[in-house]
Amino acid sequence: MASTTRRNFLALTAVALAGGSVAGCSIIGGAGDALTDSESSETVAPLDKSRTLVAYFSVPETVDPNNMTEDEENSTHVVDGKVLGNTQYLAQIIEERTGAEVFRIETAEDLPLDHGTLEDLALKQQETNARPKLKALIPNLEEYDTVFIGYPIWWYDLPMPMYTFLEQHDFSGKNIILFSVHGGSRLSGTDRTITEKLSDSSVIKNALTISRGDMGNAEAQVSDWLDSLGQ
Ligand SMILES: Cc1cc2nc3c(=O)[nH]c(=O)nc-3n(C[C@H](O)[C@H](O)[C@H](O)COP(=O)(O)O)c2cc1C
Question: Atom 31 in ligand 1: which residue has the minimum CA distance?
């Protein structure tokens, strides 16, 4: 399969907004995804940093900050010479601002770094409704009241390892705050999917979604969003 560029995602999103679907998936974009959607704004009580966790899944497609291909640049943000995945970068900003602990969600098997190979694998996992095994589960989830959950959009949905993550933990009674990075198709309904799956949790409505093309501005966006949550 040819590598999917940002332009493809934008074009496919336009199809979705016009009521279409791609590869058998229903695609939802736009409404409810906006960072400053006042109708869905919701605040949470001041966070106790020792009882707050930031859990994220992110796949930077290279570890080398030099001579990146366009696909590698699209999936990364370099901070002080260190290559971070885009979602990883948002997790780091949230960590710095809130003082929360961080947990990285990783698959037991290393994922391919080559973009086309990663896309093909992700699509196959989605088509087979796979639940890729994770390297580790959060060992001390009971110590947290609030969990920020971050992920990229893959094929207009959650990456399948995120389904494993959501199903293998008990988040009941916890506040869940979502953040995500996309290449054009915004949240694609993933906030609704998570709200439905975690029906015994309190999933806040104003999930953060940032375009991978807007990472240079992410710090301000995350800060505004945390302000809007009352943090
Ligand atoms: C396998 C795969 C599928 C993707 N599918 C979509 C998509 O459906 N819609 C979209 O907007 N972006 C899509 N993207 C782009 C990612 O959401 C974007 O590059 C994001 O920044 C990756 O975050 P990360 O660096 O934290 O892994 C896809 C990327 C990959 C690798």
Answer: 119
Beta strand extents in 73-224 (DSSP E only): 76-79, 82-85, 101-104, 146-152, 175-182, 202-203, 208-211
| Domains in the chain, CATH or no CATH each | 6-40+50-228 (3.40.50.360)
| Of 97, 75, 107, 130, residue with least CA distance to 230 | 97
- 3-38 pLDDT, tens digit per residue, is 455 445 655 555 544 444 443 333 333 333 444 334
**C-beta neighbour count of 163 within 10 angstroms:** 20
Q: Which atom of ligand 1 is nearest to the CA of 57?
A: 26
Dist CA 150 CA 177 (whole Å): 8
Q: Which residue would you say has higher pLDDT here, 98 or 25?
A: 98
Half-sphere exposure of 14 (CA within 13 A, CB side): 5
Distances (CA, A) of 33 to 40, 123, 190: 9, 23, 10
Return the ∠ at Cα 159 (arms to 166 and 154), rounded to 5°. Answer: 145
Q: Which of 27, 212, 217, 222 to mutate to test the pocket of ligand 1 (most atoms within 8 A of CB)?
A: 212
